[in-house]
Specification:
Strand order of the largest sheet: 3-7-8-9
Largest sheet: 4 strands, mixed
Number of domains: 2
Structural class: alpha+beta
Shape: elongated
Distance between the termini: 68 Å
Strand content: 5-15%
Radius of gyration: 31 Å
Length: 277
């Protein structure tokens, strides 16, 4: 196999290193597509599909080959090599590469766990999913899973955490009596049955008494559950060491609804809904 002694994009002509027109155009395309948001794998697959030769009769590209080219400072120009790309393009590619490194500046505590905290689209109410998007300023976005909606929210987890912190610390938790919808519907049904039984011409006093006690017990259970959630919330918030992070969000927040790129709505574990205002 023939080895290259000059970087892809250059050739030796009359003993001098010169730009190879077709190859240099490919270099420019690689940088342009990478800066435009394509992954190393996508670029490699595209070049392979087009049978762009890296060496004579060799056109199988891979991620490593692409990243070596992106890291090659000679493409900006040196004493021996004429520039193929600008310094600004090279630096932009390096910044993107660093942002795509999932191990760089990764703070797991500041990432919302969509598996344990329900996150919904503010437009249609369906769940959203987090996807990586290197074209966005945060390197990620949330997309509605409803195919007929597909709303997108370009917002970082850090920003969501900041809003959650501000909203919780400035709100006043209360005991919500309507957090269990199914239980409330059941209580409403029982109350209607009691009303019909009492209005019946052949009313059974003992049966009605049992129905009333059963309904009262159901109401007590609902209030007790809501009170327990409220007490749990207050205990966490009153702690001197309380901070907003992945763990406390999971414990205290039942639902996060994304309303815009800079506005959310929270439903706390006690059923209380709060917004920024």
């Amino acid at each position: 196999m023939r080895n290259r002694y000059t970087p892809f994009g250059y050739c030796v002509r009359n003993g001098v290193i010169a730009i190879q027109a077709e190859e240099s155009e490919t270099v420019q395309i690689i940088f342009s597509e990478y800066i435009g948001g394509q992954s190393l794998k996508q670029i490699a697959e595209n070049l392979t599909a087009q049978k762009i030769e890296y060496l004579p009769q060799k056109w199988t590209w891979n991620k490593n080959r692409i990243v070596r080219m992106i890291n090659d400072v000679r493409y900006m120009g040196t004493d021996q090599y004429s520039p193929i790309i600008s310094e600004a393009e090279f630096q932009q590619a390096q910044s993107i590469k660093e942002s795509r490194n999932t191990q760089t500046d990764y703070d797991r505590d500041q990432v919302i766990s969509t598996g344990t905290t329900e996150m919904l689209c503010g437009n249609c109410g369906c769940p959203v999913k987090r996807i990586r998007d290197h074209r966005s300023k945060f390197g990620q976005k949330y997309v509605c899973t409803n195919k007929s909606c597909k709303s997108e929210y370009v917002i970082s987890d850090t920003r969501i955490m900041e809003m959650i912190s501000g909203m919780i610390m400035t709100s006043t938790p209360v005991v919500i009596k309507s957090s269990d919808t199914e239980c409330l519907m059941e209580i409403h049904r029982m109350e209607q049955e009691i009303q019909r039984a009492m209005e019946s011409f052949h009313a059974d006093a003992e049966k009605i008494r049992s129905m009333i006690l059963l309904c009262a017990d159901k109401k007590y259970q609902l209030v007790s559950n809501n009170r327990a959630d409220y007490d749990k919330l207050m205990q966490e918030l009153s702690s001197d060491n309380f901070i907003i992070n992945r763990k406390t969000v999971t414990k205290l927040i039942k639902q996060i609804k994304l309303l815009s790129n800079d506005e959310i709505e929270l439903t706390l574990i006690n059923g209380q809904t709060i917004r920024k205002e």
